[in-house]
Amino acid sequence: MDGRGNLDLRVVKIERGFMPNAEGSCLISMGNTKVICSATVEERVPMWLKGRGEGWVTAEYAMLPRSGKDRKPRDTGKPDGRSVEIQRLVGRSLRAVVDLKALGERMITLDCDVLQADGGTRCASITGCYVALAEALQTLRLKKPALTDSVAAVSVGILGGVELLDLCYEEDSRAMVDMDIVATGAGKYVEVRGTAEGRPYDRKQMDRLLDTANVGLETLFRKQREALGEILAP
User: Fold this and answer.
1) Which of 21, 57, 131, 199 sits 20 to 30 Å CA-CA off 15?
2) What is the pTM of this model?
3) Does the annotation place 122 within a ligand binding site?
4) What is the CATH code of the structural domain delimited by 12-231?
C-alpha cells in the first residue's frame, strides 16, 4: 500500500536507552507501529523458583488508549485475552535465548507499551524486548553470559495471491493468510503462527512465507546489532 516491494520491511528504527530509569529500554518503530520496550531487573524470583538457583524472564503488554483508530479502555483490572496471549508470547520468545541458570535468582520483567498500532505490534515487541533485555543484562556483569542467541519476529501474509513481508494493519485485515514468525539469530524457530482467513494454504505457500520472513528477520537482526553496538562487542 505504501509503495514497498513485497520483500521490503517498513522503515525500522530502534532507539536504545529510551527510558533512563529502566535497566534496559528502547523505542522501536516499524513503520507507523511504535512500541516502548523496557526491562526491569529484580533480585527475586517467583515462589515456585526459589532455591533452584535460576532466574525468570516474563513480560507484560498493553496498548495505550489511543494507539489505534478507536479508543481502547485501559487494562485497569485483568488484561484482556489478546494482551495476555501476546505477553505470554513475548515472555517465552525471550526465555528461548536466555540461560536462566546463568541469570541466577533474579527476575527480569519486560514491559511492552504500544504508543501507536498499525499492525505487527507483537512482532515489534519481541524484536525491541531483545534489545532492552540485552542492555539490562549488561548491568548485571554476570560471570557467564546469559544470552545464548538473539531473537526477533516479523509478520508475513498472502494478499491477492502474493506473499508480503511486514504487513500494516490495512494489509493484515485484507490478507488471505497472515502469519507471525519468531526466530533466533541461528535460524531456529520459537513460534510459527499462521491463520487462513479465506482459502486454506498449502505447504508450498507456507514454505514461501517462511522464506519471505527470513528476508525481514535478517534485517531485524542487523538493526538489533546496530542498536546494541558496544554491548555486543567482545
Assistant:
1) 57
2) 0.95
3) yes
4) 3.30.230.70
